[in-house]
Design a protein that fits this description.
The chain has 8 helices and 8 strands. It has 2 domains: about 80 residues; about 190 residues, Glycoside hydrolase/deacetylase (TIM Barrel, Alpha-Beta Barrel), CATH 3.20.20. It is of the alpha/beta class and about 280 residues long. Bound molecules: zinc ion (ZN).
Length: about 280
């Protein structure tokens, strides 16, 4: 009996030993796991810190480069031309895109609400799209503020649906100095645009291709090359009727290249060439 008891006692002791052994093993492996996790977290945190430092350094350098660039622009050492084409897309868009591609230069297309399937092609070629007007119907868009913005939003949404881009660059039909809208209406539109983050761009070089159809090429070249300012926005048109603009384009590009201009698209940070000034945007 006594022997039987001691065997049971022995077995209980063994079981206890195995149990506590397993327990110890379990907790040490947990400790080991957690310490290796802690090590990993530390390592990751360090990597994060290093990356953040590098990012800050890059941002600082970028600021310096940007500052130098702006300074050089101010001093007239960098000259920029924005070629702009209004009222497209049209049957001439492909020809214009081909000439731009051949010259490796980029332009900005202030589109209207037709031939929408061509929007994406313009962007895919590296050019910019600006919002001109959906209807381009002066009587309608300049009847009142409501009509103007209804027309603008309609075009904004059409471009977004076709390209996925939320475009904020615009150009007034007829420019911000047009004589169709009253001064009061224009001020209302300008204020609301500023509030909603739309930036409009006019031009300081008019190729004169809007003065009629088939304006002679020499005239377009004469007026389309303006080298009197370090930042030029050239007004041209992309419509079926403006064939001579296509014919003049190569010489106009050559003129700017010869004068040392670089060709850029209009972005939200481009200098604003505006006939009627827009107040700074405050959000
Ligand atoms: Zn127009």
């Amino acid at each position: 009996m006594k022997k039987g008891l001691s065997i049971i006692g022995f077995l209980i002791a063994c079981a206890g030993f195995v149990y506590s052994g397993l327990n110890i093993y379990g907790s040490t492996s947990k400790i080991a796991q957690s310490s290796s996790l802690k090590g990993n977290i530390k390592k990751l945190n360090k990597e994060k810190e290093t990356k953040q430092k590098q990012l800050t350094e890059i941002a600082k350098k970028e600021e310096v480069v940007k500052g130098k660039y702006e300074q050089m622009k101010k001093e007239g050492k960098i000259k920029i031309v924005h070629l702009t084409f209004d009222d497209g897309p049209s049957n001439n868009t492909d020809k214009i895109l081909e000439i731009l591609k051949r010259n490796n230069v980029k332009a900005t297309f202030f589109v209207i609400g037709h031939n929408q399937d061509q929007y994406k092609k313009i962007l895919d070629a590296g050019h910019a799209i600006g919002l001109h007007s959906y209807t381009h119907d002066y009587k309608y868009v300049y009847a009142n503020e409501h009509n103007f913005f209804e027309d603008l939003y309609r075009l904004h949404d059409a471009v977004k649906a076709k390209t996925g881009k939320d475009i904020r660059i615009t150009r007034f039909p007829g420019g911000s100095s047009n004589a169709i809208a009253s001064k009061a209406l224009k001020q209302q539109i300008i204020t609301r645009m500023a509030r909603e983050g739309y930036i409009y761009h006019d031009w300081n070089c008019d190729s004169t291709d809007a003065s009629g159809n088939g304006v002679p090429v020499p005239k377009l070249i004469k007026y389309g090359i303006c080298t009197n300012h370090p930042e030029i926005d050239v007004l041209m048109h992309d419509t079926n009727a403006k064939g001579t603009t296509v014919q003049a384009l190569q010489t106009i590009i050559d003129g700017y290249k010869k004068a040392g201009y670089s060709f850029e698209v209009i972005t939200t940070s481009s200098e604003k060439i505006q006939h009627v000034k827009q107040p700074e945007i405050k959000h």
